[in-house]
Amino acid sequence: MLKSFFIALVVASAVFLITNFIGFPVIFSWVFVGFVFIGWLFLLLLDARPMAMPGRPLLSIVIFFLLASSVLFLIGNFVPQYDPREEIAKVKRLQSNFVKKELAAQQEALQAEMEAAGMQVAAAQPITTTEEATAAAPQAPSPELIAAGETVYNDFECYNCHKIGGKGGVKRRGPALDNVGGVLSADLVREKILDPTVFIAEGFEREYDKGVMPDTYSVQMAPDSVDALVAYLMSLQDSSVETPRPLDPDTGEPLQVQVAEAAPPAGAAEEAPAAAPEIGTEHMPEGWWTDPEIIAKGKEVYEGVANPEVNCSACHGRDGKPVLTGAADFRDPELVAGLSDTEWFNKVANGVPDTPMTAWGEKLTVEQIWQVIAYQNTFHTGGKPEVHQNP
Question: Is 194 part of a structural domain of the chain?
Fold first, then answer.
């Protein structure tokens, strides 16, 4: 008996180690160990000497059935159970996502019809002061939005392929996401959710080629759900866990990613800023045209790093070469030379009528608008900063 118990102990230890290495949750590893010892007990019964129980075979069968059922019932209580109410709530949330997506599509179609018919779409009110622009500036994601993003993550069962905090990702399908907010920009995370082919996670080239990540979230997720999921993933910044770098699908080289510094949570106490001269909307602040720090911040605004809702490169191109018909080409010296500071600012802040150029005055602060203008001014000089002369 001791020899068989030792063998069962060795097998159980091997099962526990192997299942942990594969990535099974610890609770399931212990369940497998339990089944090993149940098998050991069953073998002991087979090897045991027959007991003389005349007239009571039926009672013996009933007793064995009750004992075996009790053991299995106790084991079952330790296994994670599904609550039907939680599953019903999850189904309703997923259905709500589809409805919101359909409504958003209908709204976009209606707006397109209105524009095609020549109807004027309400434009954003122009900003007038630094205080108004600052009040309209985007805040860091609230704890409620991050919590909603975690719900989206669980509803769409992202944990089947990814791990967070050591949980999920039983099979090696996708990378751990514990530090995704410290490696990727919010814009790149959003693009990856909506289009899995945008980049390759280093070390997961084979999974990328197999198309393991679903490409249906752009249809299944409502815009506010995508916003919440991005906010949740960007809040994950545990540098102790390695998150793979993004690779260019065409070249295999690492993508250059500018990660914005983490902003304090919405509503958090802030120190009173030092007094600074008010920045107007008519002239570029002195020295900003050639200030490397200002230009670097302008690039973050231009590429959607500072605010994922504003991505100038989506229309004007990352290198200034327009990708949308009708978008201004900032590589053209004559175009740039013909713009005054005030005119350039107003085009960014208030948009351009009868063109796809949107008014960004409610999304960007006065400082951010001047920063992105300073960066745009480098396209026609091949990246060399220079002072812009008003016409």
Answer: yes
